[in-house]
Design a protein that fits this description.
alpha+beta, 3-stranded antiparallel β-sheet, elongated
Length: 122
């Protein structure tokens, strides 16, 4: 599996994603808010909310960020250094890299992601 492969929580459009969020969050809130009025039967709304949010509210929020940035950002690598730039701003003679985030985290040292022949510039 490449680093570029990963979960994609984005929707096909922003209105569709916001509608999924309204249904998901509304169902989760309704499942517990209506519990005193209608009893445990309202808990049946909780799975609907989780399906609409694709698992959890954080997954929905990540999908919102992905939906907003889709097609607007591209990763551009030049001389071993990669940057996120607005789509369509690639200078002549360079090739945009596939959209991915730099793999850093536990077990990864900054030296592994530094450009060849030097330290990374920040």
């Amino acid at each position: 599996m490449k680093i570029t492969d990963g979960p994609d929580f984005a929707s096909s459009s922003l209105p569709r994603h916001l509608l999924r969020g309204a249904v998901g969050i509304g169902s989760l809130v309704g499942a517990f808010a209506l519990l005193p009025l209608y009893g445990p039967i309202t808990l049946a709304l909780a799975p609907l909310g989780l399906v609409a949010l694709r698992g959890c509210p954080m997954c929905w929020a990540i999908g919102l960020a992905q939906t907003l940035s889709r097609g607007r950002l591209q990763r551009e690598c030049t001389d071993g250094r990669c940057e996120l730039k607005p789509a369509g701003s690639t200078p002549a003679g360079t090739t945009p890299a596939p959209p991915a985030f730099e793999a850093r985290g536990p077990g990864r040292s900054p030296a592994l992601s530094a450009p060849p022949g030097g330290t990374s510039q920040r």
